[in-house]
Design a protein that fits this description.
By secondary structure, the chain is α/β, with parallel strands linked by helices. Helix content is 56%, strand content 11%.
């Protein structure tokens, strides 16, 4: 393969094809194959490399708190988490149906790990995903108020993710402006994407934590009535993992 052909392949963003062709030329078994057989191997290799790079890019841009979280590593013993439901969610069909997921439990019970594990599966399916702590989101909101149309742009940004993970949901009390912002975000995502909520509070506390007004009613209606709810149990996963690693 001459330099001009290599240049064209690089210009078409196909450096993987160059790599595979050069590997084939050094393999005596591959050299004896038909053109169709060699070409099929090249296509398979390029496709897999492109897919892997795409997934890694989605995972990186998702900014998971636990990037290594994996669905196969979720701990089920002594926890009210249905393995079969988690496995069904890992197919990511819930995202295409715009279903929300809620992980509720005290600090250290593994809510974030479960959410990030599902998020990684979404990335593998090519779904644009983003993880963010609600306190950090509200800081972004405060900064956006200083820029013309900044809040609108911020809402559009987070509304357009196929899967959004909101960690530390309801951790702090919200001001009236923050409640309105969160309502607008939930409203824009309603029937257009899925959201995973990680919270320390049970369903009975949500309305009060959201301010108890009409916005609280509206958010409860849009979130809770179309959600799969998990109680992450009483096992402190940090302590459990620490003991097992001793």
């Amino acid at each position: 393969m001459n330099d001009e052909t290599k240049r064209k392949l690089r210009e078409m963003n196909l450096p993987e094809m160059i790599q595979m062709i050069e590997q084939q030329n050094q393999d005596s078994i591959t050299v004896s194959m038909t053109f169709e057989q060699r070409f099929q191997r090249i296509v398979d290799f390029v496709y897999q490399e492109k897919y892997n790079n795409k997934v890694q890019g989605l995972i990186k841009r998702a900014k998971f708190r636990i990037p290594s979280a994996d669905i196969t590593s979720i701990y089920y013993d002594q926890r009210k988490i249905d393995r079969h439901v988690i496995q069904e969610l890992s197919t990511c069909q819930f995202i295409h149906r715009n279903v929300n997921v809620i992980f509720a439990g005290f600090t250290g019970s593994g809510k974030t790990f479960c959410a990030c594990a599902l998020g990684r599966e979404a990335c593998k399916q090519g779904v644009r995903t983003r993880y963010i702590r609600v306190p950090d989101l509200l800081i972004e909101r405060d900064e956006a108020t200083l820029v013309p149309k900044g809040v609108t742009k911020l809402l559009n940004k987070y509304a357009n993710y196929g899967l959004l993970i909101l960690d530390e949901w309801l951790l702090d009390s919200f001001s009236e402006e923050e409640v309105h912002f969160l309502f607008e975000l939930i409203e824009r995502r309603y029937d257009s994407g899925s959201t995973i909520f990680c919270t320390q509070f049970g369903k009975k506390d949500w309305h009060t934590r959201l301010g108890g007004g009409v916005h609280a009613d509206a958010m409860m209606d849009r979130i809770v009535h179309n959600a799969v709810w998990f109680e992450t149990g009483n096992v402190n996963m940090r302590e459990h993992l620490a003991k097992n690693n001793l």
